[in-house]
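Weekly sync notes, structure subgroup
Attendees: PM, AL, DS (notes)

Item 1: joint prediction request from the bench team. They want all two components modeled as one assembly rather than separately. Inputs as received:
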Amino acid sequence: MRRGFVPLLGCLLPPVVVLAALFVGRSSGGGPGDFIALLNGTLEAAREPLLRTIFFDVRLPRILLVFTVGGVLALCGGALQAVFRNPLVSPYVLGLSSGAAFGAALAMSLSLAPIPLFAFVSGLGAIALSYFMALRKRSVSVVSLILAGIIVNGIFTALLTVVQFLSDPFRLQSIVHWTMGNFQTASWEKLRAVLLPCGVGAAVLLLLRWRLNVLALGDDEARTVGIGPAREKTVILLFVSLASSAAVSVSGIIALYGLVIPHVVRMLIGVDHRRSLPLNLAFGGTFLVAIDTISRSLTDFEIPIGIFTMLIGAPFFIYLLKKSHIGWES
Amino acid sequence: MSPAIEVQDLDFSYADHPVLSKINLQILPSRLGVIMGRNGSGKSTFLRILCGILPYRSGRIRIMGRELHALDGRARARSLGYLGQMHRPVFPFRVHDVVLTGRAGYVRFLPDRGDRIAADGALEKVGIVHLKDRVYTELSGGEQQLVMIARALAQEPDILLLDEPTTHLDHVNQVVVLKLLKRLAHDGLAVVAVLHDPNMAFLFGTDFFFVHGGRIHRVEDDKPWNSPLLRRVFHERLRIVTHRDGALVIPDI
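Output from the run, pasted for the record:
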């Protein structure tokens, strides 16, 4: 029952939650009744432009952007955990978060635009730096890659601190705000900018999802059935970097997300990446839309979503570890 | 009968440390070849060269008549299955998902019905259909070994190489695995296994190879326990106890 039920949920939940999120917000009005009236053209003329803006220029692009970012982060986390046979890997471990944060901070501090572009390039650069630090004799070991990621994270965090230290208080505030992760400035332009890299990256990872099963068994086990692990890992790492750097460039740091969601999905449906990887995309997107909807409508001021994911994610992760539901005992 | 594997003048060294030199041998279909030798003598290295994990520079290796160098990974995987020493699983995969990965040499992106049928057939051949939906990481060591053999059989190979398939198994499971290998050889597969226990080897094997001093020697004797190689390799005072038409090798202490 469960095996058929979870994929069904993966198909039904995203549209339901996205639609529900469209009707929630702090502005008066903008419920389902107004939405239907707007579509039918029966809304009174005075409220029409405002509600049109709220639905189609504020909420809809934001929801779609949040879904894209959440789905891509979970998908990339799931793929990296498989490739590196390590439960603690996510795009952030490879230096993405601090690299992107540094790029964004530099752009804000020096009034360079566009900020997402700087975050994207610098995030991608940080992953590349980790990769080349770990590269030896044309192959990359998991341990050296994770160590390199820690070093790169350290370097960029230090650089970020320098930028913050030298910035004036007004700009400092926006830098700090960016690093906490938020979707306040979501727009159709941002969605358009990330759709191509995120779409291409996600498509390639989904196409290769069964090979993740082969790679997850180990290097020798992959080689003996005819799959070259070094080449395959490089391809996957490349598309993970592309998609996740683009996602982070418009969202800021969404803490723990790419780490926790793949574990939740594995608990629900098992390891087989043919099923779990598409569900990472569906559930990752859906949960982040739900969290973002709460963060923008719960209080009068908006709580940065990165804080939310950290506060929900951390205890949940500790629970997983204690329950040893993760299944990585050996 | 044409050999499944033909090795000519193979030399192999790690950096400056020579491991194997002037290896010449043939592995035949429908035989269970056993390779014996001390720890570090180069047994595993030899198997890893044969299955294409370790590249070799001098000498020739032909797999089913084709040069090993000329085969790409997928083509190699379709004619040669390999089981390494003790696999350490990380993910709690289900058994049928593990076995299905043996089909990678046939699959472009996603395995199809034919691949699932081949994987099911491999489970049946090994006799572990009942384990199909179990979680691999929760199985006993013996069951895990059988699953990995099924995975190699899902490759539909002509040759099966196994590096110490019985080392971590209890006595009952050792017999289960070796009986299975004997049956697979009987059905036409060329099977080669590295074994440490000479008694198990003599009981189940049909061809015997000793790795010693960088060379691989084939035992020509019908009664391999009489071969002088045995004492040279194991380097101990041995007592040979004949029993029916076989013999037991016991250290003389």
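Discussion: The mean pLDDT of chain A is 86.
Action: AL to compare against the crosslinking data before next sync.
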